[in-house]
Write a structure and sequence with these properties.
This protein is an all-beta fold. The chain is 0% helix and 49% strand.
């Protein structure tokens, strides 16, 4: 059974850089051809797409709220996707989720941006 697990620091200070990783475990799925997406959801708000990356060529997209501060990358040999976000702001606080192929979801990892 395919499972996704996000990992990250949890608490970061404003202006710092955040790095989140999502790892696939279980199953025999090969991620090379699949689309990865990072979403986030702040308390009381709708889930928001942060970044996405295509398979085989890896064309990327970024949400308007984070464009210029974020980068998504993938390592299909390790079946992972990474999100890096610079110059963090309090409004970046929320639960971050990874999604594979619009089918598989991680449980989410909480990110709090606070001094």
């Amino acid at each position: 059974q395919v499972q996704l697990q996000e990992s990250g620091p949890g608490l970061v200070k404003p202006s710092q850089t955040l790095s989140l990783t999502c790892t696939v475990s279980g199953g025999s799925i090969t991620t090379n051809y699949y689309y990865w997406t990072w979403f986030r959801q702040a308390p009381g708000k709708e889930r928001q797409r942060v970044a996405g990356i295509e398979g085989n060529g890896g064309e990327t997209m970024y949400g308007d709220a984070v464009r210029g501060r974020v980068a998504i990358s993938r390592d299909d040999a390790k079946r992972t996707v990474t999100l890096e976000m610079t110059d963090l702001k309090p409004e970046d606080t929320g639960t971050y989720f990874c999604n594979l192929d619009r089918s598989y979801w991680g449980q989410g990892t909480q990110v709090t941006v606070s001094a």
